[in-house]
Amino acid sequence: MRSTKLSIITIVLVQVACLNAFTQKFENLALTPPMGWNSWNKFGCNINENIIRYTADAMVSNGMKEAGYSYILIDDCWQAGRDSLGFIVADPEKFPSGIKALADYVHSKGLKFGIYSCAGRKTCGNRPGSRGHEFQDAMSYANWGVDYLKYDWCNTEGQNASESYSLMRDALFEAGRPIVFSICEWGLSKPWEWATEIGHLWRTTGDIQNNWDIPDAKEGKCWAGGVLINLDMQQGLEKYAGPGHWNDPDMLEVGNGGLTENEARSHFSLWCMLAAPLIAGNDLTQMDPVSKDILINKDMIAIDQDKLGKQGYKIKDYGEIEVYYKPLNNSDMAICFFNRLDYPIQVEFDWTSMSLSATRDSKPLLLGLKIDRKDNYIEGQYSIWNVWQKKSVGTTSQKFIASLQGHDVIVLRLTSVTKK
Amino acid sequence: MRSTKLSIITIVLVQVACLNAFTQKFENLALTPPMGWNSWNKFGCNINENIIRYTADAMVSNGMKEAGYSYILIDDCWQAGRDSLGFIVADPEKFPSGIKALADYVHSKGLKFGIYSCAGRKTCGNRPGSRGHEFQDAMSYANWGVDYLKYDWCNTEGQNASESYSLMRDALFEAGRPIVFSICEWGLSKPWEWATEIGHLWRTTGDIQNNWDIPDAKEGKCWAGGVLINLDMQQGLEKYAGPGHWNDPDMLEVGNGGLTENEARSHFSLWCMLAAPLIAGNDLTQMDPVSKDILINKDMIAIDQDKLGKQGYKIKDYGEIEVYYKPLNNSDMAICFFNRLDYPIQVEFDWTSMSLSATRDSKPLLLGLKIDRKDNYIEGQYSIWNVWQKKSVGTTSQKFIASLQGHDVIVLRLTSVTKK
Question: Does pLDDT of B389 surpass 60?
Answer without folding.
Answer: yes
